[in-house]
Automatic annotation (TrEMBL):
Assembly and oligomerization: Homodimer.
Residues the record lists as binding NAD(+): 24-29
Organism: Streptomyces rochei
Xref: InterPro entries: 3-OHacyl-CoA_DH_NAD-bd, 3HC_DH_C, 6-PGluconate_DH-like_C_sf, 6PGD_dom2, L-carnitine_dehydrogenase, NAD(P)-bd_dom_sf
The family this protein is said to belong to: Belongs to the 3-hydroxyacyl-CoA dehydrogenase family. L-carnitine dehydrogenase subfamily.
Top-level division of the source organism's lineage: Bacteria
Alphabetical UniProt keywords: Cytoplasm, NAD, Oxidoreductase
All copies of domain 3-hydroxyacyl-CoA dehydrogenase NAD binding, residue ranges: 20-192
Protein's pathway: Lipid metabolism; butanoate metabolism; Amine and polyamine metabolism; carnitine metabolism
Function: Catalyzes the NAD(+)-dependent oxidation of L-carnitine to 3-dehydrocarnitine.
Top enzyme class: oxidoreductase
Subcellular location: Cytoplasm
Protein name: L-carnitine dehydrogenase
Keyword Nucleotide-binding appears in the UniProt entry: no
Length: 328
């Protein structure tokens, strides 16, 4: 990544950031707002939906018990959230901007250009996009050098990972600044030095998701089978070790070398050769109905609380919480 445009390295050092703007305040923008508030930042937020303010406050309030149990930064308060009437007000004094608007390429392009025009020069602007390359999103911005991807995981206030990458016209200094800022803000960061389709974690997740949808569509597995197969199986190991080290242990004392000698040839076996399935009405309805059945009367709010408690237990059990309020 290189650029002939203005160098974007942030006017404030990552350690000195106090004010963050969250633009788009749905599931992810709201989750980011909760995370930054819990870390003691002042947060301004803007979202064009008429009910955005109350919705965002409900989301932050729902996350706050989990965040309180993890330990809040000194001075952290939901009172430090300001919902503004305009995008320009939200970013006027921001030292970092996190964009979390709907996953539509044209919308992201226009919004990032608008954010670039309204945000103080040099301030880094990150997009939460789940998969668009920044090269495709930064085309309309006057200063694309400060635009990066900062891809979070739901909920951003509990799942540590953020994937950071720039586009062809992003300044490498902006990528480095964003990575350092996220670390200071308590996240675990993977920084990519060039664009990778689907980033890293989403590419892996999408492969799994594609297979899951195929199995539901073909009647090979129910929605419940799919979920159990992960929560009672590999998912337990993945919270502790990733797929590489997990499979190294499949080789016993011979480790990964023996695993590859033994099971490498089965990579060629026809377990899967599938393209993404058509998301037709039948599959759509089957997945939605299967999830309703699996929820077994629990509301989305119940499930969010249950997930948050479970993730905190896993973080604690796997030693990711060194002390109260320190998730890294
Ligand atoms: N939901 C998820 O699990 C994850 C989503 N993401 C990414 O985060 C971004 C946001 O996704 P969600 O929060 O799930 O969507 P969402 O639908 O929950 O929220 C999107 C919000 O953006 C607002 N919005 C609509 N037009 C806008 C505009 N022009 N400017 C600013 N805000 C606008 C909507 O009113 C809504 O509140 C997407 O890029 C998505 O790919 C990333 C990681 C996980
Ligand atoms: C479903 N999703 C593609 C939007 C998921 C993500 O992007 C990351 C996550 O939270 O798993």
């Amino acid at each position: 990544m290189h650029s002939s445009e203005t160098t974007a390295s942030g006017t404030t050092s990552p350690e000195d950031v106090r004010r963050v703007a969250c633009v788009g305040a749905g599931v992810i923008g709201g989750g980011w707002a909760a995370h930054f508030l819990a870390r003691g930042y002042d947060v301004t937020a803007w979202d064009p939906a008429p009910d955005a303010g109350p919705k965002l406050r409900r989301l932050v309030d729902a996350a706050w018990p989990a965040l309180t149990s993890l330990g809040l930064a000194e001075g952290a308060s939901t009172d430090r959230l300001t919902v503004t009437d305009t995008l320009e007000q939200a970013v006027a004094d921001a030292q970092f901007v996190q964009e979390s608007a709907p996953e539509k390429l044209d919308l992201k392009r226009d919004l990032l250009a608008r954010l670039d025009a309204a945000t103080p020069p040099g301030v880094v602007i990150a997009s939460s996009t789940s998969g668009y390359p920044m090269t495709d999103m930064q085309t309309a911005a006057a200063d694309p050098s400060r635009l990066v991807v900062g891809h979070p995981f739901n909920p951003p206030y509990l799942i540590p990972l953020v994937e950071v990458v720039g586009g062809e016209r992003t300044d490498a200094a902006a990528v480095a600044w964003a990575s350092r800022f996220y670390e200071v803000a308590g996240k675990s960061v993977i920084t990519m030095d060039h664009e990778v389709p689907g980033f890293i974690a989403n590419r892996l997740q999408e492969a799994l998701w594609r297979e899951a949808l195929h199995m539901v569509a073909s009647g090979e597995a129910t929605v419940r089978d799919i979920d159990l197969s992960i929560t009672e199986g590999p998912g337990l190991r993945w919270a502790v070790m990733g797929p590489m080290l997990t499979f190294a242990l499949a080789g016993g004392e011979g480790g990964m070398a023996h695993m590859l000698d033994h099971f490498g040839p089965s990579l060629k076996s026809p377990w899967t050769r599938l393209e993404a399935p058509e998301l037709d009405k039948e599959l759509y309805d089957a997945v939605v109905a299967g999830c309703d059945e699996a929820a077994d009367g629990r509301s989305i709010a119940d499930l969010v609380a249950e997930r948050d408690r479970g993730v905190i237990d896993v973080l604690r059990a796997t030693g990711r919480l060194n002390r109260e309020g320190d998730s890294r």
